Amino acid sequence: MQSPWKHHFCSLNKSQTHYLDSAATAQVPQVVVKAISQYLSNGSGNPGRGAYSQSESATLVIKECRKKIADFIHCNSEQVIFTKGTTESINLVANSFAKTLTPNDSILVTQLEHHANLLPWQRLCQQTGAKLNILPIKMNGELDLRDYQKSLNDNCKLVAFSHYSNVIGLTNDLTQIIKTAREVGVLTLVDGAQAISHVAVNMKKYDCDFYTFSGHKIYASGGSGILYAKKPNHLLPLLLGGGIVKRVESDNYSLLDGFQKLEAGSSNMVALTGLSNAIDFIQSIGIVEIAEYEKALTKELYQAINHLQNYTIISHPKSSSIVSFYHKNIHCHDIASILAQSGISVRAGHHCSQPCLTALGVKHCLRASVGLYNDSDDIEALIKNLVSVEKMF
Fold it and tell me: What is the dotted CATH code of the domain comprising 6-20+287-392?
């Protein structure tokens, strides 16, 4: 398979460059780089802070980006909140529960979660005395939903779970998980960081209360994040400062309504310019076409690694972009370092998901993840060098 989109990425059009770590961060297409450069070349301005052209241009960028995101995930513009990434978004939601959660309440997360969707809930429960329940996974990495209803009935206030696992690469059944929670009045937060560039996301279909992702996962530059909130007015600001107030007095203040009270300070205009144009880039290709290509390529990758002796795959066979694996004798960091010398980029370690790996009986592993720019040449280079690593040891 040859990617029809690889030529858009200057950073990859070099010999011996095989980038297989898109689950960590995606490369940036030239159209996004050009848009960022053009924005900066025309002069920087602070949105909503001035009547001059640079400020008005920045205000327009913000407005257009919010509308593009809303159309992309099928929601209203007023439900889109800009953050600096998924981690900040989840912390914003957790912070909003701090004043209402009691020792009689509980929060439910799963064993699959990235630390970004675990630590904020751990701290919240430590601060409030609430109980943190963990929904376990089976040995194949799938969620064990047998006690799901029981956990919901434990005075649960919110279920936080990933749309798509960053370790095993399996897409969770959002519809069923959200529907069951809603039937008993429990709110839902979905970590969509890994899913956003691989599947069509639809807030009207999911009916979750919160959904979050990062721009750098979807071919934008770093520093932008999105929090979808069904009812943004119910959230409390994580940060206080300029741009979110109706009035400030010496001893008091009043805030604007909705998303406007949640975006304190100066916006990251470079990141949002990149995100806006990255969405255009994805839309010009079509997320369904991208997903079909990546799924076929991941199947090829899975089968190739599965044929190697001494390497064990721990990701799910139905993964659509990730293959995680380990060698029975060689440490994953040693393998990753050797691969890097041949221009092959993979992730090694616990992938910020230690409870997940512990449940699977593994301390660390390698992860190869694909993007729309990868092709069979990248897979062949990886396999060739994985075989060579064994000979070195």
Answer: 3.90.1150.10
